[in-house]
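Subject: for your reference before the review

Hello V.,

The reviewers asked for a structural picture of the protein, and I figured it would be easier to keep everything in one thread rather than splitting it across files. Below is the amino acid sequence we used in the manuscript, unchanged from the supplementary table.
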Amino acid sequence: MLRHIVFMKFKTGVDALQVEDLEKSLGSLPGKIDEIKGFEFGPDILKSERSYDFALAASFTDLDSLKSYQIHPDHLPVLQKVRSLCEAILVVDFEWP
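And here is what came back from the structure prediction:
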């Protein structure tokens, strides 16, 4: 299995309605993209100085499944939305048994 972790730091001025819209867009993806085996996301609750604002954790069978997800036509507009809201994005992909 492969785990895809994304940390998002929002731009100054991103409001609750924009975050709610992002959550709705992200929540629609598992029903549209068969490669997604697990999909969790949400805002940071600690809000420490080291915290990012939002995280996504997705599971895929293998690297090929992740690559298919990344170019899937339903994922691309959501990715654009993420990029438009964020000043920084961190990503880690790793395999586990």
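For the response letter, the relevant points are probably these. The radius of gyration is 13 Å. The chain is about 35% helix and 35% strand.

Happy to draft the paragraph if you're swamped.

O.
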